[in-house]
């Protein structure tokens, strides 16, 4: 089968690109998304904290986040459920640890204000001496966002194939690629590598330049609380140790905030990590955890610069990278989909993105 564009990977990266590209072209005809798992967003895209923080990440990520948030908070297209809403982000700890996380534009909270926002920290004033708040942070509904992109893409005519791993690629003449996906053969003029933790492996099938992507484990849990935090409670990060929590329904989502190197795999939580996390939360705050509803581990896949990679591979023709989103895959999703679409449709990223950020997204060249 011959198609124009094959997108490898059915997480937020691949799906947001499929829906944006189909919208820009006025049709999804000729676009195919291929996902290895039986269900979409099976890996990292169903395991995030669902927070979009404009003060979090290196400069290109901050710009991509500022451009993504309005798209989700006030979408120009009809959406079946809210995609994002205000959800401030507080960083608290010692004076030195909070100072290290402070960036221009963030508001300093007095001790009294911190306790007003986070009464569960009131008993630990020695540990939580300083605090800053990012009032512009928002929370997204990752499930709704992924589903919205899927529907928008499929309605436009994009073909989405699940349970089909791309296992081989070879040049098919005129710059096209012949792929084997789930045992079937297809030919594509252009291929997008949105394979998350497997993106360097997929690149290898094309003889592309590896981007030294490193998958990093992060474990989280949804827990029940004896006293709910309240729906407007901010997300809170302990600046000293990096663990964080935020309200979720009448309980909380808690995470170590760790970044432990891992091979690409279906990462699973270690029960001892959840036990230790619960112990820490209960020691440092007055929150009382009455049960664990769900625990999970996901892989945040980072480039060496911690800036995602979105650009044409310097060696393998007609292979576009859309990978290395690290801990920013949702908060940069709309802007990265737009940048990738610009490259596919116009050959260059438009000047809605600064030249510095557009350059920082380009794949690293081959070293030899
Ligand atoms: C605990 C945790 C908290 C996080 N919190 C946030 C947050 O608050 N905000 C934020 O913006 N981001 C957050 N992230 C990061 C965010 O979840 C990721 O950046 C994002 O989900 C990456 O999306 P992706 O589509 O690149 O990868 P994935 O969702 O992993 O999708 C890649 C897909 O490619 C498929 N694939 C791989 N190889 C092949 C192949 N050969 N053939 C076919 N398909 C293939 C895989 O099966 C997979 O489904 C968090 C991550 C974790 C783990």
TrEMBL record:
Keywords of the record, alphabetical order, are: Oxidoreductase
Q: Which first-to-last residue range defines the signal peptide?
A: none
Top-rank lineage group of the source organism: Bacteria
Q: Which residues form the FAD dependent oxidoreductase domain?
A: 4-343
What InterPro entries would the database entry show?
A: FAD-dep_OxRdtase, FAD/NAD-bd_sf
Q: Which Pfam families match?
A: DAO
User: What is this protein called in UniProt?
Assistant: FAD-dependent oxidoreductase
> Highest lineage ranks of the organism?
Bacteria, Bacillati, Actinomycetota, Actinomycetes, Micrococcales
